[in-house]
Write a structure and sequence with these properties.
It comes from Natrinema altunense (strain JCM 12890 / CGMCC 1.3731 / AJ2). The chain is of the alpha/beta class. The protein is built from twelve helices and twelve strands. It folds into two domains: 146 residues, Alpha-Beta Complex (Aspartate Aminotransferase, domain 1); 229 residues, Type I PLP-dependent aspartate aminotransferase-like (Major domain) (Aspartate Aminotransferase, domain 2), CATH 3.40.640.10. Helix 4 packs parallel to helix 5, helix 4 packs across helix 8 and helix 9 crosses helix 12. The N terminus is likely disordered.
Length: 407
Amino acid sequence: MTDTDPTPEGDASVEAATSAGAGAEAVDAEPELDRDGTSTPVPIAEPELSDDAIERVASILEAGRLADGPEVRAFEEEFASYCGTADAVATANGTTALHAALEAIGLEAGDAVITSPFSFVASANAIRLAGGTPVFADIDPETYTLDPTDVERVLGERNDIVGLLPVHLYGLPADMPALCELADAHDLFVVEDACQAHGAKIDGRRVGEFGDAACFSFYPTKNMTTGEGGMIVTDRDDIAARAASYVNHGRETDGTGGYEHVALGHNYRLTSVAAAIGRTQLERLPACNRARREHAAYYDDRLADLPLETPTEPANARHVYHQYTVRTDERDALESTLSEREVQTGVYYETPIHRQPAYETVSTAAASLPQAERAAADVLSLPVHPGLTERDRRTVVEAVRDHFTTQ
């Protein structure tokens, strides 16, 4: 699927237009009030379904084919085309996508896979569910993604690593050129966790094109949603076939499987109802990503002079701002101020994976990963979803500025 919106993705004019006249616009306007006289909270996320999505769902319900079927196949084909890959396999959610991809790639019991400690726990859980052992390398403190230098350090210390599972966090791609170079040098597979990065790019290529496989989530707060859902994309026919079988109880994938189960598998299938929503969301994804980038540019311009770090976008990357995450050693106080001003925020993630109780028995749980641990203490995400109004953006900026300028 190609982008048909007339504004090119990544066009610098979008950011320039958003920032134009910033100095002349007041950021201390009073928030708009609801009819009962109370102010309207600014939500951290606001999932939205179009009328087209509702109509498509209604047509699926009316037809009565609610489970896996032609609607799911169409969604897979369109999503693969969008990502620039040969194949896509839909799943029930992002975690099942990661698990099925690792099973399809042939992860075996005890195999060690390097991943990020600074992510939602599903990234590492999927490795364990597939029988492997997650090994954590530290993150780059500016991008919050796997630091290739630390990955190289881990590779030099261990001889049991079979793969890399980098995470594209907050909508920003990991340093895939460097990580893929390491993978090639050490004969490792690469599975991209792209669950937060639909449409993000590095060196002009969309995430999903770099690894042996990549996995996406369609949870309600993501850049596009199916309610719950996931997707594996790959250029490898063998991975696509094994993944498609695995998510469908280990059946053959040629449509003749019936009750013949040729391998161990799960019921990780996506429903036709979810696929119908996903197809409409995919059509809107380019415009929604541009809106997120416009909001991010607005914040960048108006928060630049404050003592906090705003998100980094490397020159070769295109951030899609699943989250707009700032960093400050006053994180908890700023979070409290924003809550008082009815601005919702999120801390993603307060506890690194290697410090989670469920990881106490994992061999690398006691590792020293200072950058991940510092980030966990400092990061705070501000509302950046496409549904933000001008009033919402002013309210967020005013609250952040007031926190730092009235201390």
